[in-house]
Each structure stands twice: as structure tokens, then as C-alpha cells.
Amino acid sequence: MDAVTTPIRKSSLPAYDPALREDLASIYARMRHVMPELEWAVHAPYVAAINALKRERNAVILAHNYQTPEIYYGIADYTGDSLGLAQHAAATEAEVIVQCGVHFMAETSKILSPGKTVLIPDAEAGCSLADSITPADIELLRRRYPGVPVVTYVNTSAAVKAASDICCTSANAREVVESLGTDRVIFLPDQYLGRWVASQTDVQIILWQGACEVHERFTGAQLRDYRRLHPGIHIIAHPECPPDVLEEADYVGSTTGMVRHIEESGAARVVMVTECSMSDNVAVQFPKVDFIRPCNLCPHMKRITLPKVLAALQTLSPAVEVDPTIAARARLAVERMLAVGRGAEQAPMPLPRQAAAG
Ligand code: 13P
Ligand code: SF4
Description:
The chain is α/β, with parallel strands linked by helices.
């Protein structure tokens, strides 16, 4: 093994001594409100080792908003929603991309940057939505609805993207659907995001029965309880939630849209109806906002840890590979989406009840 591929043994991690504490003080300062120093002392040696090795490897670390604060604030070069991560993967000059997120996100990076090494620190980091649909299902749908275009959420495998006409994320789903200029689209695989889009557009949406195992656990009754217990609370929800949850929300949008909305609304008390770690990350950005935190964790996102990121950089594995023929077709679907961009999420999306009232 050469110097670059020789694993750093755990014993060679720097100790959390006063010098390291001082070196990393500015990083810890960002997350100290959500992490006691006792916990930081465990993470800090990994943060130091990862940041050093990252430079040596000419690597960039992309972290989704659902990653834990020590990843999000400690080692990530770019953080964001699925669309932002894809845009960054397409633009980066780095030789290595470390995807702190789930497998479909790493595949999207590989599709957009086929010449780069794309690492996913835990290859088992899956997604209930990605598991809910196959290319064979799409073939059946195309036979049932001839000529109707297939819009596929990025939370799917490369093979499913390759069988689709265009991808979308939660940030641009309506714009993508409307960009096709058809009366009907097949929308896969998230039934709740599909229903949300249907409530925002005149295009008829043919749904699939997939769901996110994290967001489908929220209920409208739970949110009504929050309103009762915390008067004046502002509810912001991800569109992967069921319709009765979205009905109760003051704002619905992608994870990035949620953050923008907190900033623009000036809300003092917020409940974020989405994955649990996101509230920690956002609480750091808005120290004056009081966050009520229901904690639905995504078990797949939580597979990514600092020791696994360090091991991935040391060994350059697990690397994500996508069959070149599938990648070429999937790239078309993702690039069509990137051409549509972020759409109207620049501004908060109108709520169904506001639209109905107006
Ligand atoms: P966005 O960050 O694109 O809103 O996606 C949410 C999600 O569930 C990703 O797995
Ligand atoms: Fe998939 Fe839901 Fe986890 Fe996102 S939060 S990765 S959609 S299971």
C-alpha cells in the first residue's frame, strides 16, 4: 500500500488535548448550542483527521440537511437539499466526492460526474422511496398510459431514473411537471409529494404508492396538538408528509425552502415537520428561534458517521459505480431537471388553503 491508501489506525487519531481544542474552536463554536463539549471531544479527533485527509485527497464532502451536526458543521464543504447537492456534484472540480447522505444521492453525483470517484461512507444507506419502484414498474405504467411522460423524484435508483423522462426534487416538482406541457404526467414514486404537486397545478398527476418512512409517520392530529400546546407556533412541513399534515402547515417546501422560510417569516417559534437532525442544524443558524423538535430519524441517513467517513477517505471505498449505459440515460433525466432549476421555491409556495381563500 502507498502512503495515500495506508489506513490511519484509530490510535493515530489526534487526542482531544488543549491544542486540538484550540485548533477546532471555530468549528465547535458553530454547534456548541446543540452539542455538549463531552460529545464534541469524541468527534473532534475525527473532524481533524477527516479535514486533513480531505485536502490530501482533493476531495469534497457533500452533506444533506439531514446529516448530524458534527458532519454538517464539522467536515462538510457543501450542505443542502437534494437539488443543491446534485447541482454541486455537477460543478465541483474535486477528484473525489464523499456523499454524506443516502445511496441515491451518491448515484446522482456519479451520474453527473462519471470521471470522479464518488464515495458513500456506508453502502447500506438506502431509502424507502428508492426501494418502492423498479424499471419494470415503469415499463408497465408506460404500457398502461401510452405517451404520458414519466416524472421521477430523485429519491430513486439510477436504473429508475434511466427509465424516466425527467427527474425532480421537492424543490422543483411543480415546475418540472409543468415544464412538459402535457395534460397528464406519471409521477413517481412518492404519493404524498405527488398529491402535493397535484394541489398546486392543473396538470393531472398519475400517482404511485411509494412513501418516505420518516415523513409518513407524522399526523395532522399531532400538529394540532402542537398548536394547542404551543400557541403561536409556526408549522413548516416537507411535502413528503401525508395530506392531513400539509393541511395543518403554514409553509410546505423542500429542506432548503424550509430554512429560507424561517428567515423570511421571522417566526419566533417553529416546528419543523421533517427529519430530526435538520432541526439541530437549523437551530444553529437561528439561535433566537425556539424550535419544537419532534424526532423522526431517518435510519438510512444516520448510517453515515465520522468514523465511516474517515475510513472511506482512507480506503477510497465504498465507491459508487453506475453502469455507463444506465448512467447516460439517467444523466439525461437529471440534466433536464437541472435545466428547469429551483423554480418558484425562491419564494415561499402558496398553501392550498391560501390559494383556495384567494
Ligand atoms: P430534499 O432535501 O430535497 O427536500 O429531500 C428530502 C429527503 O427526504 C431527502 O432524502
Ligand atoms: Fe428516503 Fe425518507 Fe430517509 Fe429521505 S428521509 S432518505 S426520503 S427514507
